[in-house]
Amino acid sequence: MNALVPLPVLLPLCATGLSLAFGTRLKQFQRFISVAVLTAVLGLSVTLMIAADMDGPLTVHLGDFAPPLGITLVADRLSGLMLTVSSAVTLCVLVYSLGQGMADRDEETPVAVFHPAYLILVAGVSCTFLAGDLVNLYVGFEIMLVASFVLLTLGGTGSRVRAGSTYVIISLFSSMLFLTAIAMTYAATGTANFAQLAGRLAALPLGVQTLIQAMLLTVFAIKAAVFPLAAWLPDSYPTAPAPVTAVFAGLLTKVGVYCMLRTETLLFPGNRLGDLLMAAALASMVVGILGAVAQTDLKRLLSFTLISHIGYMVFGIGLATREAYGGAIVYVVHHITVQTTLFLVAGLIERRGGTTELTRLGGIAKAAPFLAVLFFVPAMNLAGIPPLSGFIGKLGLMRAGVADGSVWAWILVTGSTATSLLTLYVMAKVWNLAFWRAAPPGQALDGTVLESDEEDDSDADEGPDRMRGTGDEGVRLRHQPAGRAVAATLHGHAVTTTTKLPRPMTWATAATVALGLAFTVFAGPLTSYTDRSAAELIARSPYIEAVLGR
């Protein structure tokens, strides 16, 4: 079984080579490779999750080189669960993107790079979850960074290049800080292997330990978009195509949260920086949700709710108890699915209504009732309405806070409750403006093509379709036969409204909704599994013994 551990990383990388070799001429073959490989990765992830739960952590030393020289990959309960959820989500997003590309007839657009970049992103995420040392964790981050920049800038529009540049600059800064922390750790301990560091870091002076811990937390907080290190996210994610934004919002920030969980439990037990983490959690919740309240664009609104709800996960990490870790893991799994779903729904709303600007939407519940259901369920899940999985995760975290009884814990319980109520308000606002009220006079009609016109924007005339202050100053509307697109939204330039949404996009979104509901239906087994994961994280010995063979 240990031999299966590297495959979630190796399969997407091998498929990337095949996709690049044959995809430019055989696009159907390229699509088949991507779907087949991600399906295989999902099956492998489920197998590893079950095996890790039954038999303990699975390890493999590549090349049979023992630590600290060799590359160690480890699959325990936490990494197995994260792999499974991320694989399911990336597969659904891939099907969504295929449906969008086929509906927009992307065969006339040179977009063969999307599938290789997406597969590399999946490989990077898998590498991060399985990494058994700091160096390979850094490698996983860099793999994701390279793929992310390609995906963010698909289409080459000015807004996407600007957003991608911001993202890369922030990511490169965090990478430099990460390398510095790795160098300091190796100089002080002689290893970068997690299992060995778990024993050697404790022998260092307290000041050195705290410095290394603070540097690593800063790196991971940037990746996770924890306030005040989250300013880059609302400007970077909304400009990307819907499937790219969905997988970024659902997965990439949770990679940072996963790394915080892993290092705080395995390398730095004792919760020395717990108060700092809880302060950051509270700030993320409050600032994020207040930012969401102020937004009128759906994608930006969801970006701020993403920052806000990262605070719940950091809350659990800051408490550092078994119940808190279990609640945080439940919330991570829930949030990956729900946030991805909401961004996919935002893409469907844009295709149906021609924009994500809420002031120009309306009447969708009557015109597209199934789309309304696809939004309503994950929206209530995000708000934490009982008995959905969002409520289960929040309840677990609040119970852990009450049991802790400290001043910070009670403050976070109060902040969590207020944030949940404001999230419900924000989701109700979206529902009222986009779905419930009648369609406004300026809403795009069926078959309207919205085409970016950034190069010639200064010469364009203002008119009823180009309204100042709406965020659509750079958008020109013209009418075409329904279903016809000038260029695919996935790859830049345009989106065509249509009353009949592409089936692959709709059913892929429905699958992510169903996955979120599955966490509610199987809440008992899920919480039992996360409790065992939390106990394993706190114990540390199963992980260390599996890697070092003691």
TrEMBL record:
Q: Which key words tag this protein in UniProt?
A: Cell membrane, Membrane, Transmembrane, Transmembrane helix
* Primary subcellular site in the record, as a coarse category: membrane
Q: Where is the NADH:quinone oxidoreductase/Mrp antiporter transmembrane domain?
A: 131-416
Q: Which domain of life is it from?
A: Bacteria
Pfam families from the UniProt entry: Proton_antipo_M
Q: Where does this protein have compositionally biased stretches of type Acidic residues?
A: 451-462
Query: Which membrane topology term applies here?
Result: Multi-pass membrane protein
Residues annotated as transmembrane: 31-51, 81-99, 111-131, 137-155, 167-188, 208-233, 240-261, 273-294, 301-322, 328-349, 370-388, 408-428, 507-526
The residue ranges flagged as biased composition, category Basic and acidic residues, are 463-475
Q: Where in the cell is it found?
A: Cell membrane; Membrane
The annotated region (Disordered) lies at: 446-475
Q: Which family does it belong to?
A: Belongs to the CPA3 antiporters (TC 2.A.63) subunit D family.
What name does the UniProt record give this protein?
Na+/H+ antiporter subunit D
Its ancestry begins with: Bacteria, Bacillati, Actinomycetota, Actinomycetes, Kitasatosporales
